[in-house]
Structures
1.
Amino acid sequence: MSDQKALTELTALAARTRAAQRALGSATAAQRTAALRAIGRILGEREAEILAANARDMAEAADLEAPLRKRLALSAAKLATLRDGLAGLAQSPDPVGRPLRRTELDQGLMLTQVQSPIGVLLIIFESRPDAVVQIGGLAVRSGNGVILKGGREARHSNAALVDCLRAGLEAAGLPADAVQGVEQRGEVAALLALDHHIDLVIPRGSGALVRHIQESTRIPVLGHAEGVCTLYLDAAADPETAAHLAVDGKCDYPAACNATETLLVHQDFVPRLAPVGEALRAAGVRLKADEAVRAVLPWAESAAPEDGSTEYGDLTLAVRVVSSLDAAIDFAHAHGSGHTESICTEDQAAADRFLREVDSASVFHNASTRFADGYRYGLGAEVGIATGRIHARGPVGVDGLMTTRWLLRGSGQGAGDYGAGKRSYTHRVLPLS
Amino acid sequence: MSDQKALTELTALAARTRAAQRALGSATAAQRTAALRAIGRILGEREAEILAANARDMAEAADLEAPLRKRLALSAAKLATLRDGLAGLAQSPDPVGRPLRRTELDQGLMLTQVQSPIGVLLIIFESRPDAVVQIGGLAVRSGNGVILKGGREARHSNAALVDCLRAGLEAAGLPADAVQGVEQRGEVAALLALDHHIDLVIPRGSGALVRHIQESTRIPVLGHAEGVCTLYLDAAADPETAAHLAVDGKCDYPAACNATETLLVHQDFVPRLAPVGEALRAAGVRLKADEAVRAVLPWAESAAPEDGSTEYGDLTLAVRVVSSLDAAIDFAHAHGSGHTESICTEDQAAADRFLREVDSASVFHNASTRFADGYRYGLGAEVGIATGRIHARGPVGVDGLMTTRWLLRGSGQGAGDYGAGKRSYTHRVLPLS
């Protein structure tokens, strides 16, 4: 397909998604709930079909690496988990039209700010076909239209799952076109050019994918570019707590964006670092450390300049020494990625300063950086983790898929009716319910 | 100054702003309040100096058009208004650190989402030196750093006012570098390239300026590209209300982005359109109307295809006929700019549908489109009006300058302590205070 033809077809597809989204977004909460229940039911009815499609993908992807094959594989158990997730979304409060602010501007002139769907989302994801149902379900709950661009290796599975979502919408009397699947690799570039038709791009995948997409589009992108997370062991850190947080932060899931990559150590804590070092060594962690640390942990390797700014994604940990709390905060600002930083200390004043002054999406005291996660934060379904500072920051739940509208209910007022010698505004803030 | 030299110097300036912003944002509310009061005091002390700088600008801008000269001119009265604004900001609640959500994840593991400054703002504005104080004050209240790029015609005035802001910060023990003024025309392009140093651009000026900036930067832009606002006269509109809303919407301030540009008329209302037409004619409004309207208002001009999608900015109004409420909503979606649409009707069901289904930042019933404004909405100081759908939408108050951080206070927990057969999350939602 030529670039121009792809652009024309995808523009039309995005326009259909927008029109369908408007119907989905202005439907009742009960209709969106009915659609979520119908999707769950249809997933059950079509289980054999979906697993057959997945078997085709698995057969065609025989030379894929083992971890990717594992992510690609569907099973009856995985489908049951997806149906549970849909049932949970069906029971969760509908965010569309939720009032955020009510103000009486004057008698008979009532302003309400309400939550509204953002519009048309473009989700770009790799391997895992589960994402179709998880994100499609979130889109239905939040009244957003969604264009799902999955990996080519999962195309049969994704197509079967997208069909279930569309059938579920139709069963609830809603337009199927609110959910779209696209699968050609060349389509991504064309979609990223549609900044008048697509309102938000959510890439789910590696930091490299996110960065590539951010650099290729004018559409706002919600995602985490990278996670260089820091654990700072303060002068007043408890060595046992420090060891637990360092091992958990590094080893619980080293490939995750919220894994600890840098251990900052106050110079006064260095003499008590041995048990922390031994716990890390026992967990198989390789240290890249400053010389002062190597005096205590002689088995550690020497740090190079980039250690402390690097997302290793494996069992490597930078260990750098700082002279003060201020120096630790400055180091995190200069070398971290603004994702998550944690202080380990028994000194409440130091903790308070760290939580007040560190300018990262998540800032912790005596807790592992691994807690920076939508599920652990209790946000329900997680849309992703945002390292941007605009719109959403940190773990993002369904609220990250919402914008607002201002509704004003009047009784014939003009703005020229107000002013000196005329009517005045009351600006009375009213309770939300 | 060469482009490269400008880029190097402005990068350093932005980095200084970031460092100073971190101090401003983690200072106490009382310090930010003290800075606002100091700025007000210093504006009073330096009044003669400021007016002299303004007189220089006025003298050099002798060939400026009259409306621009009026916007450029400062006076003792204007300065008093600015001081009043600063006093209001000093009394207004400090948004930094305000808790938005509190959740107990487990005993001794407490999550709080708090409001935080976005970081470094770039404000690009024309003519009005008042903006320096208004926006500089908002930045101080919200803990944001700000780079103020004013028009060259106001450079002496702007410089004098920026000096007052910086002196006020220093008087309160805060770093002056949180507020910066730049004035060279060539600097805008260099600043717009600093997407790692500047977090948000707010252009204050024409739609053309906003569009140009949106197309020239990867930094998120908060602003209104254009305002093509619609008033829809439903079949059940009251003719007197219709006339009042149409005249107010078009004539109260025709150059404003919230002025009504398009009158949509239900075909069944056309026979009752005469008094609305006469009221508009009496107010000096020129109509570009469909033929069915011209049958009733023969003095109206014929509409061309672009009428209904045009921001006139003067006393011109498109008048287009639609066959139904659905057609009116579709017309607004297809031709409006998503800024503000209003329905005039006595039919509550029609109003409810319009308010539910119209996907614009502001949607009104029986009220003039001119109410779409931060002051009228009771938001206090207005940052601007956003026609984007991400981060902020519609009139934006100080909340539009805020992002969030997630603070987690633990007692040594690792994420691996939770799971099957281990500890479970409580996820208890707690009250905010």
2.
Amino acid sequence: MWVDNATDMLKISSPTLIVDQQKATANLQKMQLRAFKAGAELRPHFKTHQSGVVGQWFLEAGITKITVSSVSMASYFAMHGFSDITIAFPFNILEMDELKSLMQKVKINLIVSSLSTLEKINQCIEKEVDVFLKIDVGTHRSGIEANEKKVIQDFFHQAKKLSNINMVGILAHAGHTYHAKGAVEIQSIADECSTKLNDLKTMFSERQLLISWGDTPSCSMAEMTAYFDEWRPGNFIFYDVMQYHIGSCKLQDIAVAVACPVVEVHPSRNQLVIYGGAVHFAKEFISADNGFKLFGYVVRFTEKGWSEPLPGAWLASLSQEHGIVQLTSEQIEDFRIGDVIGILPIHSCLTVSALRDMRDLNNHAIPCMKS
Amino acid sequence: MWVDNATDMLKISSPTLIVDQQKATANLQKMQLRAFKAGAELRPHFKTHQSGVVGQWFLEAGITKITVSSVSMASYFAMHGFSDITIAFPFNILEMDELKSLMQKVKINLIVSSLSTLEKINQCIEKEVDVFLKIDVGTHRSGIEANEKKVIQDFFHQAKKLSNINMVGILAHAGHTYHAKGAVEIQSIADECSTKLNDLKTMFSERQLLISWGDTPSCSMAEMTAYFDEWRPGNFIFYDVMQYHIGSCKLQDIAVAVACPVVEVHPSRNQLVIYGGAVHFAKEFISADNGFKLFGYVVRFTEKGWSEPLPGAWLASLSQEHGIVQLTSEQIEDFRIGDVIGILPIHSCLTVSALRDMRDLNNHAIPCMKS
């Protein structure tokens, strides 16, 4: 049974992200094993948790090479024990000073898709840096399109002339897996992208390029033996409702729940008003089959974590600080003002970034980058 | 003309919210005048800016009574010169200790819609507190529905027995104005709600209830002379693209733009990749007439601020740290990697809360609550 008033356990009085360390480290172990079996090195993306404490769980699992999404995140994790960091964002030349300072402390790997950026980096830094060329495998967000072979060839050719630039590989993020659903569709994206990237690897075989690949859906579900040299999933450490809907995880694998005080109970419409809004969850939603927007699932805290989602209950809307939880008429009987309920978030990366106030099940703070 | 590389002016290297103080204070003056003419006291909502520095602009305009959306925000502004603060969120009984501590420093006004919460407050606090009953005027988010006159009567009757509770008024937020468009529709919501609230005021005339009213669309547009005793708009200080679409402001009134470095230029699809994503903007969007999602308008920084939005250009998508800007084929000629462009945000309240890194046009930091 759930804890009637979870504050007894959690001492929560405002929206707080609760992390189940056991689930998170189990997710990590599973991903390590999958990467190992597929012959890839796991270089997890730390944008999801942004926390030195969670980073420690990775260090304990033997992981020292990581991925981040900003120069400031690289600086943070350089101070938290990581010595080999890929900044998986098209390098921003306005942060050259920060890059130079970082490169004095740890090994930094950059991603670049423009020659002008590459030349600028070469000009400004004082020692060699490893660089991945960003390849667009179909997401059309950033990078050079995989079929632009002439452009890619030219890029490598020009890069060779730059004495501080060491082109070590090609890097892709199949962001379109987030719009896919189920193992079959994800597998087909992974297959197609592997073909594109390995074609490039073969085409430039004299360079012995690494292929770096990332995204939680494919790394969680697809069969990718010998496809890629490196995997960079991030979300898998916590997972979330979106990943559950894609098929990347089971509901029990979701390692975070936002604890929210109940501030109003409305039996007439079977709704709760909770303290927990867009500034805590961010405003990502899933369009559910019933046509409603789904901002999260509802759980109750137990002695050792939280329950399965309550069937037929969901977080139905968010304003700045308020959330509206829709329940059934039976469920609402069990809720009182002052209860603390849990919400499984839609997108854990954005929720961590919005909320920043994390604790483990033992009520210990889990500081993160900006908390 | 715009500044070719705004970093010369702004020294911006990562996403930063730029505030045009002149526009913001002009917005404030206009709102003060409108409230004055309507016979209402302005008690602005500070959830939009969450900043002591911006708060100072209000103090200089003679405003000392404010509204906030959380107990922690009340604590912050109690430390920044405000002595009369309404916490316009259904009071969360788990924050009783924080409330008691706050009440020793400044005058706090609460909103409540449940008798059990009211009784709990009465039990726990040591001196009288002013309380507003939250009335649901049609948004169906929180409060007692305006037509539940029996319930409201009972609430006031019971409240009278509680020695630490001083019921001073009724409070409503017509959140549904955010889904309305144009002055006529907004006016009709204001009219209808005024009738509902003034009916209640008359019904309980022996109590001399104040009517507290808030929302930027109606306070910006509607004719509300003698409708309400108090106005609590918040967003108006900055406005944003959503308010422009509703009709609350002109584009030139929008007082904030997010400065974002350009990291990739894609002439083949007339797109820029910018450093500026969901963790900076939050993920609110407008479904534009052309069927696309609109995450913001694009401006260029000038010597004294920023340009009008570039016609036909928009922020078209956001991932965690990336934004994709759609331009015309003529416009893209003018953009280079390393430029800093401006984005007028969809919802400034959420963008401030997500970004927290604010500066004025003179490059002075504007610290906010959690920065």
